[in-house]
Design a protein that fits this description.
245 residues; mainly alpha; Cd81 Antigen, Extracellular Domain, Chain: A; 2 domains; Tetraspanin_animals; membrane; Tetraspanin/Peripherin; Tetraspanin; disulfide bond
């Protein structure tokens, strides 16, 4: 009996070590998800808002999930150190909730990507029509940023600027210039000819695809914590029972 008790205590110490390691990695994953959400809000926002299907919720889902993981991860160490079975079961339940949240976030981003790309054709044309609207200065600066960054011009081609319905027809803006200071009305060979639609779609597909894939991949990690928490709680209860016996 004493030998078995010592074996259980050694196994419990081993599980606690693994659990502490999991808690650390789990907190780091929360920081990573939070950083991805902030990156989407800061860097991808200007591209996403061009779509008529843009809702702006996806980055906040990741930010909220990451913050929740960091909070739970910080409390997890106390549960592991104290070794209270009830706290460990509660922690396991929270991990199960995190699993559902992360899996839902990844799936929703995949679905959101499809809706987002479908609205870009209308969204880019609308942005072009409002380019010189005094109330749409932010849209204009975002469109300039997209054209200069992705080396594109117009929606599907540079001449889209000239083919807008009156009174929206405009000269091709300077952000379409390959080199700074070109005259877009004269130096047609010095402007980008490829439209922005395909480039924006490719850019977002690549970046949002990585984000969604990472969210789904990380989602299954909390299940490891659920198993560790339940096993540790079970062995603690078993050890206490054997000590009393």
């Amino acid at each position: 009996m004493k030998k078995k008790l010592l074996q259980n205590m050694a196994f419990m110490a081993c599980l606690k070590t693994f659990h502490m390691l999991f808690d650390f990695i789990f907190s780091v994953s929360g920081i990573a998800i939070l950083a991805i959400g902030i990156w989407m809000e800061v860097e991808l926002y200007k591209y996403m808002e061009m779509s008529t299907a843009f809702s702006g919720t996806a980055p906040y889902v990741l930010i909220g999930t990451g913050s929740f993981i960091i909070l739970i991860g910080s409390l997890a160490c106390c549960c592991t150190v104290k070794g209270q079975p009830v706290l460990l079961y509660v922690y396991g339940a929270f991990l199960a909730i995190v699993f559902v949240l992360e899996l839902g976030a990844g799936i929703s981003i995949f679905a959101y990507r499809t809706k987002l790309t479908e609205g870009f054709d209308k969204g880019l044309t609308r942005a072009m029509m409002n380019y010189h609207n005094a109330n749409s200065s932010q849209v204009s600066s975002d469109l300039d940023l997209i054209q200069s960054t992705l080396h594109c011009c117009g929606n599907h081609k540079a001449s889209d600027w000239l083919e807008l319905e009156l009174p929206h027809a405009l000269p091709i803006p300077p952000s379409c210039c390959i080199k700074d200071g070109c005259n877009t009305e004269v130096d047609r060979g010095e402007i980008y000819t490829q439209g922005c639609y395909n480039k924006v779609i490719d850019f977002l597909d690549a970046n949002i695809g990585i984000v969604a894939g990472a969210a789904v991949g990380i989602a299954f990690f909390p299940l490891v914590g659920v198993i560790l928490s339940c096993c540790l709680a079970s062995i603690i209860n078993k050890t206490k029972y054997e000590q009393m016996a």
